[in-house]
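Lab notebook, bench 4. Still working through the backlog of constructs that have no structural model yet. Next entry is a single chain of 984 residues. Request: give me the structure tokens for it.
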Amino acid sequence: MYITVSSSASSSLLRAASSYSRTRLFPSFRNLSPINTTSPSPVNHHRSLASAAVRSFHCSVPRWSHRLDWRSPLSLRAQIRTVNPVIERLERKFATMAAEHPFKTVLTSLPKPGGGECGKFYSLPALNDPRIDKLPYSIRILLESAIRNCDNFQVKKEDVEKIIDWENTSPKQVEIPFKPARVLLQDFTGVPAVVDLACMRDAMNKLGSDTSKINPLVPVDLVIDHSVQVDVTRSENAVQANMELEFQRNKERFSFLKWGSTAFHNMLVVPPGSGIVHQVNLEYLGRVVFNTDGMLYPDSVVGTDSHTTMIDGLGVAGWGVGGIEAEAAMLGQPMSMVLPGVVGFKLSGKLRNGVTATDLVLTVTQMLRKHGVVGKFVEFYGDGMGELSLADRATIANMSPEYGATMGFFPVDHVTLQYLKLTGRSDETVEMVESYLRANKMFVDYNEPQQERVYSSYLALNLAEVEPCISGPKRPHDRVPLKEMKADWNSCLNNKVGFKGFAVPKEAQDKVAKFSFHGQPAELKHGSVVIAAITSCTNTSNPSVMLGAGLVAKKACELGLQVKPWVKTSLAPGSGVVTKYLLQSGLQEYLNKQGFHIVGYGCTTCIGNSGDLDESVASAISENDIIASAVLSGNRNFEGRVHSLTRANYLASPPLVVAYALAGTVDIDFDKEPIGTGKDGKGVYFKDIWPSTEEIAEAVQSSVLPEMFKSTYEAITKGNPMWNQLAVPSSTMYSWDPNSTYIHEPPYFKNMTMDLPGAHGVKDAYCLLNFGDSITTDHISPAGSIHKDSPAAKYLLDRGVECKDFNSYGSRRGNDEVMARGTFANIRLVNKLLNGEVGPKTIHVPTGEKLYVFDAAMRYKDAGHDTVVLAGAEYGSGSSRDWAAKGPMLLGVKAVIAKSFERIHRSNLVGMGVIPLCFKSGEDADTLGLTGHERYTIDLPSKISDIRPGQDVTVTTDSGKSFTCTVRFDTEVINGFKYLLCAK
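Model written out:
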């Protein structure tokens, strides 16, 4: 049988949402200050718990997350008819339950230093349980949430005990509920989320239910940062010019998001041009401690961007989830998660002179990848913590997805408090944060003796052992020490095609492509740098590396070095604060002289919005088959992500980006070879332009000021003239434009009824694609440019959209027609069915024709055939984009059979009704002799009730082969799948 959805996981949300209580959890959230001096009323608090319990009854969805559970009613209309007469009786019953909160005895007052109280909180010390003292700080946050939200319905007393007994229960993969305090979105993932919410409202309206029940019940912050592209560079006017182009391309999307900010409660939209979502979250949105109507509790967040983990550096528990899960969290559902193991990572010593936080994070990433931390928390501790600024910590936390952990957590300490003050949080706020966390044993004071905490496993790093490095050319965890870079590059040229190889013949390795760049003689070789980008939340939030880049540029200018004009240089700060301190320091002038003008405030090159290369450069690369390089201060360098013409992409610190731009190539030994020739005619070496740690520290001390943060964020929600001029309707229902190529009503709820259809079998399915290892979500659903010959391009051209206005796949995620055509559209896709040919095509097995993946999928669907995907290890790694699951579902993919899955993507597949199956250990498509030309039948039980977590199933082929796979959904997922059974 197969399990599929015509209405997606959101249909289950919809059925559940129709029965939400009209009571809301939070008032409209516009004031971001965590301070609320209103004293809590125990009566009101118990009433709120009662209303939560009624909500719990109404929606009958106890848990949602990686382990889903949609025990939705089979008939919404029937439920509405039968529930209303008993609501009053149930409210009385649940009010009694709430009044008897299992942990009411630990509800404690937090006094203010000058008298009165800050609020009330659920006290962990008041439990008098010695096991709590040994818990990792990250687990204590889960514990506090469970205690506070315990109603013995959605969150049970048994769940609290599981967390307290973490040392014994976590190895058993037990499941717990977790309710995050808020949800974070960016525009690429936020648009489809708001589209889904708008679509749900339409469906609620058609089903005769209350559309106002589709509203976020927790604060939702959406930062528009993924749309700006690097069209204009090396210009004082670049920011304005790129923003104008951004608004021209995205006016419809921006209007839609602005409508959403008024149509939905609890939704704050931060306008374009403000900064990168994670830096804005760190500097402004992060509360650390909430005070909601006098109830104090730790800030926590889930976000639709995998690098939401950056906030872990601030001591806020946060991680990335799929859009489907985020929508559920918005609608007030507790997330269900396996109680994670926690890796204790002990830091000692101090970074050596000239070593950056980027070098540190690339080292940590490699260590943790080797250790194996998928699905786990990593918690940092030790004497070395005091040597790391909060920005350094945020850099390490940011790259949690790259090392595979759910979180890279830094508990709150004095460094955190200093950062809160630096970034303009009030003294009263900081005092409240410290008082609450100390009172609830969530604060680390390294001036006091440390009680030993228990971890699942341990790692240690002496910071003095970290050396300068970069990572690449195709994966973030392929770290290369700087001193070995030249040798590594030459090995890559020689190695067979793979993550560390390009297979360039010996006789072609010294090829020189000469061309004319605007009348100036120019040349490119293998390894020539054509893109040098200071970008990405990973680094732009860190003043030490940003000012370090400015110092490199200054020294280079003074010595007479100049970046070649055909290198596309750019600087995209994560917030306006960066601009302020670069100007204050006087270093922006030197960055400008080297071509690193500010191009905009957003993710830019890191997510593939690098813009076009100059036509002469692009032609020189293409016509001569040059392995061109990009060097960026980003966090992802998967092939085809940064730019289609840069096959080698290296992650480096901002100062190293400037250094490589000056060198013009990655084929250089910085210790032995000069970067260039100075104005005195002598060679200039790396050591001549590299700033000392002391120089950088002095620049940070004199240039980064609290007032910069205050002035920047006081103005942030005021928008800008272009945003403020966008006119949006006041209606709470969205008026869909059938001619729009940006915002399109999705098919998930069309022809939906409240009775769920039965299951259908996966029988004789064709293989749509046959992959190897490390297929990322960028391969599955690219975010970058739309190729002019692709099915998506044809769709847009047929609707009058010119090539220059195609924009990117990421910007068009509000249109399912474009995104379905963009699924598996990455130009670097390696599909074994094509026998070595690279590109977004496949073989239509019945005819043997080579077709675009979309065209082949549609041919299968039109003929009534199901499809499956074969894959290797780490399928779905990379960004947490739900379209990497929605797209395959729309193409008719019923199952993915892989060696292993990335956590969030596997969850998204489940949410869209695509079955994730794992080969048995030691087996894969190759060892089993599968070519992809077979037809596949998956032998799941005929009754859903017979499906068990992690059970084995048999897959047979028409060629006579039979093998066993493990179904990769767990306890709660199975129950959820009961309500994802819909006819095609």
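Notes after review: The first strand starts at residue 107 and ends at 111. DSSP finds 34 helices and 34 strands in the chain. Flag for follow-up if needed.
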